[in-house]
Amino acid sequence: MADNHLVILSKSFAVDTISLCDTLKSRKKASAIISQLLRSGTSIGANIHEANYASSKADFVNKFQIALKGCYETDYWLDIFHDSGIINEEEYSKMISQCSKIRKLLIASINTAKKNE
Q: Which end of the chain has fewer CB within 10 Å, C or N?
């Protein structure tokens, strides 16, 4: 059940990441690093989706761990964009909150999967 919730949350986050990156492109700010945020923000959901087709429990955990790393990288880029004034507080709060929810669910899912091995 949590996995399906994660798929939905991460897909929504990916769409919001794309939208934010499009907005940043139109503002003509930080064009050199927008792609970093775009890649990390959308890879989270891709890895969660891929985990649903894992060949083993270890493969499942590995995909979730890769998604978790993507969350941490996305946090970093969001912090950089926020601290440099490229995104405003509202944009930052929305995105960082979504990323945090996904991260917490991933950690819980990874811990549960490892415990059930």
A: N
| Number of domains making up the chain | 1
- Domain, as residue range, for 72: 2-115
Mean predicted confidence (pLDDT) in 48-69: 95
DSSP assignments along 19-60, one per residue: HHHHHHHHHT-SHHHHHHHHHHHHHHHHHHHHHTT-SSHHHH
> What are the tens digits of pLDDT across the range 14-57?
999 999 999 999 988 788 899 999 999 999 999 999 998 999 99
CATH of the domain at 88: 1.20.1440.60
Q: Is 34 left (phi over 0), alpha (psi -120 to 50) or beta?
A: alpha
Higher pLDDT, 33 or 95: 95
Q: 94: buried, middle or exposed (CB in 10 Å: 19+, 13-18, 0-12)?
A: middle
Mean pLDDT taken over the chain? 93
